[in-house]
Amino acid sequence: MPNGNLANAFSAESVLLQRSADSWREAIALAGSGLVAAGVATDAYTQAMIEAVETNGPYIVIAPGFALAHARPSAEVLRWGMSLVTLAEPVQFGAGDNDPVSVVVGLAAVDKQQHIVALQLLAEKLIQPEFVNSLLKLSNFARFVEIISN
Amino acid sequence: MKILAVCGEGIGTSVLLKMNADRVLKRLGIEALVEATDIETANTTRDAQIFLTTAGLQDKLVAGAAEIIAIDKVFDLEELSDKLAAAIL
User: Fold this and answer.
1) What are the angstrom distances between the C-alpha of A63 and each of A50, A76, A87, A123, B44?
2) Which residues of chain A does B79 touch, with a Cβ-Cβ cutoff of 8 Å?
3) Contacts of A127 in chain B (CB under 8 A)
4) Residue (of A31, A63, A59, A61) closest to A128 by Cα position
5) Residues 6+ apart with CB under 8 A from A113
6) Which chain A residue lies closest to B72 (C-alpha atoms)?
7) Are B12 and A60 a contacting pair at CB < 8 A?
8) A contacts of B11 (beta carbons < 8 Å)
9) The complex's ipTM?
């Protein structure tokens, strides 16, 4: 998979816009379902992403309103990829100042290398203070691709 | 100087921390090697001077002589810069 464009990390199946979740677990489960629908990972990987927070706390909430859900590379990851969930109503992760969360990106990696360029491109977006809010307004995949491609 | 950027898995949060730390250190004119890694690996690493992690994970780290810096907002380069400068300069 070419990875010079952030859009290649996602697919129409892995981008879930303006969904509803009642808890951080449901929010991560949605991100996991996007990875499963795109053929990136299995349901067990979704469980592993939830367990990572149960074990280590909400450290995946790395910016105001934004969580990067992920677990370790494992056999449950079929190929590297990302999913996106935007929530109509934000949920609490217990993450202090960064709560509540309204955008979750799910990340599945097969090793420590293949997803790095995409992650770097995502970082360049996240460094823009308005990026998370701009995602909340999205209602279709085509517009999402536009936003992350330029 | 060696800095370990640490998260639970070593593939996501820690990589983002490393990217932003590299950017900030360059701006501060500090030469340092920043490596992204997971908690278990970090806890058996003894040649790093600083462990850089996100708020909430610092309690899981056994840093030995290394200083632990916990970052609340990974993309707030000012926070990152202030905390790194305070620890190093």
Assistant:
1) 19, 27, 16, 11, 28
2) none
3) 20, 75, 77
4) A63
5) none
6) A62
7) yes
8) 70, 72-73, 107, 109, 112, 115
9) 0.90
Task: State which residue of chain B sits closest to A57, comparing Cα positions.
Answer: B56
Q: What is the pLDDT of residues B23-74, one digit of tens each?
A: 999 999 999 999 999 999 999 999 999 999 998 899 999 988 899 999 999 9
Yes or no: is domain B2-88 CATH 3.10.450.50? no
The DSSP annotation for A33-56 comes to HHHHHTTSB-HHHHHHHHHHHHHH
CATH architecture of A6-137: 3-Layer(aba) Sandwich (3.40)
**Taking CB atoms and an 8 Å limit, are A112 and B60 in contact across chains?**
no
Amino acid at B53: T
Q: Where are the domains of chain B?
A: 2-88
Question: Position of tokens 């921390």?
Answer: B17
Residue A109: phi and psi, rounded to 5, are -125, 145
Q: How many CB pairs under 8 A join A and B?
A: 78
